[in-house]
């Protein structure tokens, strides 16, 4: 059984069971939310569900199939247990969390299997073909696009293939700074094993604790430090992927002109072509310096210019994030208000200094800028970046706000749990575009979101930040809040909002996803973004690798 | 007609007609070659061919087809002229140059067409399907893998589709530092148009003068400054490719998680999927500083360590090249020995200083290290790199040898023309691997080459350099020389050598090509490198985009 999930994580929501968002020490946050959403937030609309409240049909898988699986992987590595089936049937999207709160698991998987080695996966896929199954590769289950939910209607069973047992760093090659890592390793498992030998992968998405290498590769993920370390597709030197037709094993070379990049076609294939089992990753020595700072700009546009200039002048931070006015105010209200009295007094004094200089968290753009690396190199970059920001009107706030962001960087995902129970629609939507289009896209998507959120006449709050930056553009990451609509209409309300945002993104030159992937939530817009010929190309490759269409049918592209 | 080729370039060999390798001012080079190859080099085995000496059959294309083409693209943009047919039927590989010297054009194209806009290409492909033609996209014709030679046996004509008319920079987007460029633009045409606006693409392959953007993208090329500016696949933000089933138009975004990368599948497709017509490229401001230097190391391994350290410490030069012992000696013998007496005396004094410190061009490893960019950034990098190299036993030779390399960087390709006429087999072979495997692969390929070159009992010379460097590995680029075998056996001799090298590469963890591409010369080894499933995937995508298989059949993968 998956050691990681059972008894440690919220199967119905986000994160570790023993961790919740600390509202008590932040006096300003709930008043801020109340004011902006125009709701009292004083009663529970939902409560966390108990497993016994969830109703799912008996597993469809025949006894013979289960026996075969148990023989293959060991009886302890096959389960039709309710907890396992429920926790493997959905990801962590707003829709998923909503349905869990409604005690609904619309499409449960029938069993979960934890193969111990690649050879067992080969056999499982063979069995899947023979028994007309739907097989869904499962990493950490943190998908926000519906990536792990079974969708097929014409199968004799849905099997979740959990890679949790393949969680080892197999080899570290110090000379080349690469490591062969098994795909089922979770973020912390990878870093722990690499750190021991003095290395880091440098991939730290918000889902870090609850997502795996294979999942990152399958969804073309980006960590929060991607500006410096690169996106996952830049980190993969080579991979192994088990398909129903055999193993794709790309060559371990730094670069090649040996035809079209099959490697870059496997990256982002979301489990529809094969099961990624192992990858050779580019790794880095542990940074000597770890330096996060806060800055504030008078407005979003000024901060955007600063990021663009950094990137184009080759002053590349490891991490850079810029919040718009709304999100900056939200960040301000997140500040811890209890604890050390002197620290509190110091912060208040700092805010006064800010105000005298004409900056404010109520009407500014907050930037976090992080540098990780060698001493000399980070010093050089820091000096250049701070000089550049000053020149563009930015005010350096020092390491305090940077550290604060770093320490609380996982909090918002936990906050969502509480807000949803109080009846707040909370979701995130992300895209990317080139610098010349960034502010235009920013405005269009924001307007579309607000219009959709306020359709019923209520209020809404839409914050945004630039996170992953490139020489020629950046990503935009929206966080949205609004009162949930009347009971029973919540899913439809969300669909309306999602549709409005997705339309605005695709119509205005954005990509439907910068790093969340496609799953089934984004596939109608992915189709428009990539066009019919490219879609046919993906379909044709699927037909080569997975001719019986047993792997994650219905994701990315409509199946058969 | 192609303005560029006619009357300006050698159709039977490399380069501009008015340019040749200057042997006269280099007293040492011919004695060096004579000694190392054990041949007199005093008589012509071949002479440059005249067009009238080449025999090709009448074009197979029906009058009606030609009429249709002329109506489509204008009569001046269609030709069955002998010069055009001959010069569009082969690239610039050793095999190509050999056959030209033997007055052999084995498989001539039947006509050449120069479309003026994308719409015309759509029509040409439609016509190609209707008339059962073979259509070969043609850029600068510099392929060294057989990429532009017609191969199909079952067609009613072979048409070379020359993109020379699509040679404009369409838009420069200063904010995002991107430019939309037509695929038929040659290196100098691109740089001229970008430089006018203060930008550079930064892609400078050896073939720069005679290759196009579309060709670079189709073959996953790398320029000599790729270590700093990136390989072509890093520079393409988006592209347009006309396929017989419609236009693939990838989204202009800095990054996306919208499924498998169709973009990275089109890059490297070598004209078998479609005709690349336009790409949005990442561009850079013209460098403020342009600084090339020479260094010398006691041996190849020490220099290799220095490059690895630079890359892994983030001290990334724009260009870095390291020659092994043989190539260093060759570089030494290339030195101009006439001209300014004082300059000459200065050089001789410098060589004496070298010798006193225990370094020599006869027994060392010469490095060129180039930096291009902003003043501050290049100063920072230079200081770091030189410090690092000193620490690893390298001796800094100053800017003189760097400038000399830069100025003569196109010379060797011209030298080949003269050597081949004197009966020398001259070719280049390239690969890439990770640092941990680099010296092993270096030795294995070198041994295989020497054994194959010396099979008849003669002598040979095999030099090698590291050119394109990455954090986790680098490319190896071999230049090989040997006396040609007995008359009539030259092509077979070369095939034997090529086969031996390719086997050694694939057997020892290299890629069959780092930047030359596949064409038909590399396809047997590409097949082994990528494996059958990946090959089937490419074949399946071709079937989607080019179901009648009219586009460059026989390249990359065996056709139908």
CATH H-tier superfamily of the domain at 289-409 in chain A: FAD-linked oxidase, cap domain/gating helix
- Give the CA-CA distance, first to last residue of chain A: 32 Å
CATH architecture of the domain at 289-409 in chain A: 3-Layer(aba) Sandwich
Question: What is the subunit arrangement here?
Answer: homodimer
Question: Which protein chains are joined by the largest interface, and how many residues does each one contribute?
Answer: A-B, 92 and 92 residues
The radius of gyration of chain A is 23 Å
Helix content of chain A: 25-40%
- Based on DSSP secondary structure assignment, what is the total number of beta strands of chain A? 18
The average pLDDT value of chain A, as a whole number, equals 95
Number of helices of chain A: 20
**Biggest β-sheet description of chain A:** 7 strands, antiparallel
Secondary-structure class of chain A: alpha+beta
CATH class of the domain at 289-409 in chain A: Alpha Beta
What is the fold named in CATH at topology level of the domain at 289-409 in chain A? Vanillyl-alcohol Oxidase, Chain A, domain 3
């Amino acid at each position: 059984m998956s050691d990681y999930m059972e008894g440690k994580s919220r199967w119905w929501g986000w994160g570790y069971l023993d961790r919740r968002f600390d509202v008590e020490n932040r006096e300003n946050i709930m008043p801020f939310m109340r004011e902006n959403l125009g709701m009292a937030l004083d009663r529970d609309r939902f409560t966390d569900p108990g497993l016994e409240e969830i109703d799912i049909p008996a597993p469809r898988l025949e006894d013979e199939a289960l026996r075969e699986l148990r023989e293959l992987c060991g009886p302890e590595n096959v389960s039709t247990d309710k907890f396992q089936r429920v926790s493997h049937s959905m990801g962590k999207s707003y829709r998923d969390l909503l349905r869990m709160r409604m005690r609904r698991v619309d499409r449960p998987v029938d069993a979960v299997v934890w193969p111990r080695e690649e050879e067992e996966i080969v056999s499982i896929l063979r069995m899947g073909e023979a028994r007309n199954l739907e097989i869904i590769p499962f990493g950490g289950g943190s998908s926000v696009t519906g990536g792990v939910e079974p969708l097929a209607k014409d199968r004799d069973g849905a099997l979740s293939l959990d890679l949790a047992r393949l969680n080892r760093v197999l080899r570290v090659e110090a000379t080349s700074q690469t490591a062969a890592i098994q795909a089922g390793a979770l973020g912390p498992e990878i870093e722990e094993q690499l750190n021991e030998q003095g290395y880091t992968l440098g991939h730290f998405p918000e889902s870090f604790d609850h997502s795996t290498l294979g999942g990152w590769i399958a969804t073309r993920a980006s960590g929060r430090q991607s500006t410096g370390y690169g996106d996952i597709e830049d980190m993969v030197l080579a991979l192994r992927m088990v398909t129903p037709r055999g193993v794709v094993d790309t060559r371990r070379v730094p670069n090649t002109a040996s035809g079209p990049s099959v490697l870059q076609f496997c990256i982002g294939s979301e489990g529809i072509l094969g099961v990624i089992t192992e990858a050779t990753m580019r790794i880095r020595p542990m940074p000597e310096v770890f330096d996060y700072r806060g800055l504030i700009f008078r407005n979003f546009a000024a901060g955007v210019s600063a990021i663009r200039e950094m990137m184009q002048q080759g002053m590349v931070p490891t991490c850079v994030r810029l919040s718009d006015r709304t999100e900056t105010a939200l960040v301000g209200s997140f500040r811890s208000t209890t604890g050390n009295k002197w620290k509190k007094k110091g912060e208040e004094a700092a805010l006064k200094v800010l105000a005298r200089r004409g900056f404010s968290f109520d009407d500014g753009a907050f930037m976090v800028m992080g540098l990780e690396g060698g001493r000399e190199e980070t010093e050089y970059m820091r000096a250049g970046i701070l000089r550049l920001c000053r020149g563009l009107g930015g005010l350096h706030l020092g390491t305090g706000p940077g550290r604060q962001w770093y320490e609380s960087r996982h909090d918002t995902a936990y906050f969502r749990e509480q807000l949803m129970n109080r009846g707040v629609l909370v979701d995130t939507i992300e895209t990317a575009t080139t610098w010349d289009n960034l502010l235009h896209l920013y405005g269009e998507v924001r307007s579309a979101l607000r219009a959709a959120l306020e359709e019923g006449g209520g209020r809404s709050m839409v914050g945004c930040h630039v996170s992953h930056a490139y020489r020629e553009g950046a990503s935009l990451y929206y966080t949205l809040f609004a009162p949930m609509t009347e009971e029973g209409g919540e899913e439809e309300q969300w669909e309306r909002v999602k549709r409005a945002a997705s339309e605005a993104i695709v119509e205005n030159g954005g990509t439907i996803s910068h790093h969340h992937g496609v799953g089934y939530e984004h596939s109608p817009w992915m189709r428009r973004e990539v066009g019919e010929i490219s879609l046919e190309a993906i379909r044709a490759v699927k037909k080569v690798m997975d001719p019986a269409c047993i792997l994650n049918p219905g994701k990315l592209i409509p199946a058969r």
